[in-house]
Write a structure and sequence with these properties.
Blueprint: E1 14-17, E2 22-25, E3 44-48, E4 55-63, E5 66-73, E6 76-82, H1 90-96, E7 101-104, H2 106-116, H3 120-123, E8 128-132, H4 134-144, E9 152-153, H5 154-160, H6 167-175, E10 188-189, H7 202-212
Parallel strand pairs: 3-8, 4-7, 9-10
Antiparallel strand pairs: 1-2, 4-5, 5-6
Helix pairs in contact: 5-6
């Protein structure tokens, strides 16, 4: 597969219907576009991981849940990570795009950062481009189908992508998600009801879920995840 060829949805594509607490089939997304944050259909390109010798830009900014860094490829968001002001983000960005040259350039990120700092509807318009293996892209695509206010277990997500006995591999793909918040890996929790891990800290995960109405401030759920 060419490194710039989109990885399209397979036959396992499903949509989370939170109102009925069930999963329902949907047609494969032939255009490669999937819902972001369950509100609008933002363009999300899933590309095969491969060599790319290009200059990418990043900048620091603040979100309600902490300091963040946006990585930009052209006019698309390719990385969104949480880091504090004292941490060099380049090693983490290099993990996401190891063959790229990262340059700090707030002007190149200005438009996307403005949308990221807006409300949910604004964030839902951010164009996203991610690179990964076909399995990683299947997992990230499934994450995009979990609406705000809903949660899913790691095991349920593994079943959705057609690998019901690969919860560990699914968890690894979730952990490799390059665009936090918009590809909502924070909405996946453990089967025992615990929030589980989060690359940027369980405190940030809990705070985002509280803001989305999935979890009360004291950690209580209104319903069991995935049921």
């Amino acid at each position: 597969m060419n490194a710039n060829q989109e990885i399209r949805s397979g036959s396992t594509g499903v949509r989370v219907d939170c109102s009925r607490s069930a999963f329902t089939k949907r047609e494969p997304a032939g255009s490669g576009m999937v819902p972001i944050d369950g509100y609008t259909r933002s363009p999300v390109r899933f590309l095969e991981k491969g060599p790319e010798a290009q200059a990418l830009h990043f900048c620091r900014f603040d979100l309600p849940w902490g300091g963040a860094v946006a990585g930009v490829s052209g006019e698309q968001l390719c990385a969104l990570i949480f880091v504090d002001a004292m941490t060099d983000p380049v090693p983490e960005l290099a993990r996401i795009r190891p063959n790229a040259v990262w340059r700090e350039d707030p002007a190149a990120c200005h438009s996307l950062v403005g949308m990221l700092q807006g409300g949910v509807a604004d964030r839902g318009r951010v164009p996203v481009e991610v690179r990964g293996t076909p399995f990683q892209c299947d997992v990230w695509r499934a994450l995009c189908d979990i609406p705000p206010g809903c949660m899913m277990t790691y095991g349920d997500l593994a079943g959705i992508v057609g690998r019901p006995h690969a919860a560990r591999a699914t968890g690894a793909a979730i952990g490799a998600n390059p665009v936090s918040l918009l590809i909502p890996c924070h909405r996946v929790v453990r089967a025992d009801g615990a929030l589980g891990g989060y690359r940027w800290g369980v405190g940030i995960k809990r705070a985002i879920l509280v803001a989305e109405g999935a979890v009360h401030a004291d950690g209580r759920y209104d319903c069991q995840p995935g049921i």
